[in-house]
Design goal:
alpha/beta; binds guanosine-5'-diphosphate
Length: 321
């Protein structure tokens, strides 16, 4: 039975990946940052089937002991606060986990378990202000926030250990991926929660920033499948994981509200103070290489994704009321 170690197992991706790996016959060990019950919510249904340990990404000795104890065959690194604004508020703390955490894992693998296969959750934010549209695995990096800078570091360090030490280490360049487990700070979930609340008469209005901002949004369940496929290849390599399509925040509102029979224009207020500093809306990935090598393509469309999220929020609210 292969063993997988998932850092940040309590997040959206960690929880989907853990489910998939358990179904594939893996033993799963996962880290969470602290004892906050919020870190367990998404994996509560898996407790007893996965082994949970405290996060050790800030402590090299403890991390190495974790590797020595569990000898993972595969490691997936999701340990991060993926809310961009948090990286501006706490750039040093963000760097310690997002950037240095990757080196700590790579060092542990190199020293203790050099046959371990490593997946690094890289990000479209490494392209920030993109040099080309759509982006591919060879597009130059130009991150524009501390999160993107740290992810660029992690990406390059993963490549460096692959090239210098021959480790099976790869980065998936992940574009926005969403699900009913997405945290409400992200605009998709903010909108689907609000559409459900307004439908049930629990709220009237939703205040958003720029409705014309565009993103390449996919379904998280599809993306974790690609991550696993990357680690089953004969050779390690980096892949863009994206849908190749963009939609606007307005499209999201339209889809979510119309799904519950509402007109978003009667409920959504665009407020200038929530606009982000100038952002390009040109982050869109070309997933052709993943299609070719991994035989991967997203199975959930934008419309299906939004509907899935609204339905899940409605069901949860009805159950808890
Ligand atoms: P990000 O790609 O990691 O920044 O994901 P988000 O879901 O936070 O934001 C996606 C896009 O939605 C960005 O371009 C935001 O500017 C835009 N957006 C518009 N209104 C809002 C809002 O109220 N909250 C958030 N989080 N984003 C918003």
């Amino acid at each position: 039975m292969p063993t997988a170690l998932i850092t940040g197992i309590g997040g959206q991706d960690g929880s989907y990946l853990a489910e998939m790996l358990l179904a594939n016959g893996y033993r799963v060990v996962g880290t969470v940052p602290d004892d906050d019950p919020a870190n367990i919510d998404r994996i509560r249904h898996l407790l007893g089937r996965v082994e949970i340990v405290r996060d050790d990404l800030l402590d090299q000795d403890r991390l190495e002991r974790l590797f020595a104890e569990h000898r993972p065959d595969e490691v997936y690194n999701f340990a991060a606060n993926s809310v961009l604004a948090a990286s501006f508020r706490q750039p040093i703390a963000a760097t310690l986990v997002l950037a240095m955490g990757v080196t700590r894992i790579l060092e542990s693998i190199r020293k203790i378990a050099p046959r371990t296969r490593f997946f690094q959750a890289s990000s479209s934010e490494i392209f920030g202000k993109p040099a080309e549209v759509p982006q591919t695995e060879t597009t130059p990096f130009h991150p524009r926030n501390p999160y993107g800078v740290s992810k660029a570091y992690g990406h390059l360090m993963t490549m460096t250990y692959r090239e210098n030490y021959g480790l099976f280490a790869c980065s998936g360049i992940l574009y926005n991926h969403e699900s009913p487990r997405r945290s409400p700070e992200f605009v998709t979930r903010k909108i689907t929660l609000a559409a459900a609340r307004i439908k049930l008469g629990l709220a009237k209005e939703l205040r958003l920033g720029n409705l014309d901002a565009r993103r390449d949004w996919g379904f998280a369940g599809d993306y974790v499948r690609a991550m696993w496929l990357m680690l089953q290849r004969p050779q390690p390599d980096d892949y863009v994981l994206a849908t190749g399509e963009t939609h606007s925040v307005r499209d999201l509102c339209e889809e979510a509200f119309s799904h519950v029979g509402l007109d978003y224009r009667e409920h959504v207020v665009q407020e200038a103070e929530s606009f982000r500093p100038p952002e390009t809306s040109q982050l869109v990935g070309n997933p052709a290489k993943a299609g070719r090598d991994l035989d991967w393509k997203p199975t959930v469309t934008f419309r299906e994704l939004v509907r899935m999220m609204v339905d899940a929020d409605l069901e949860e609210m009805r159950r808890s009321s």
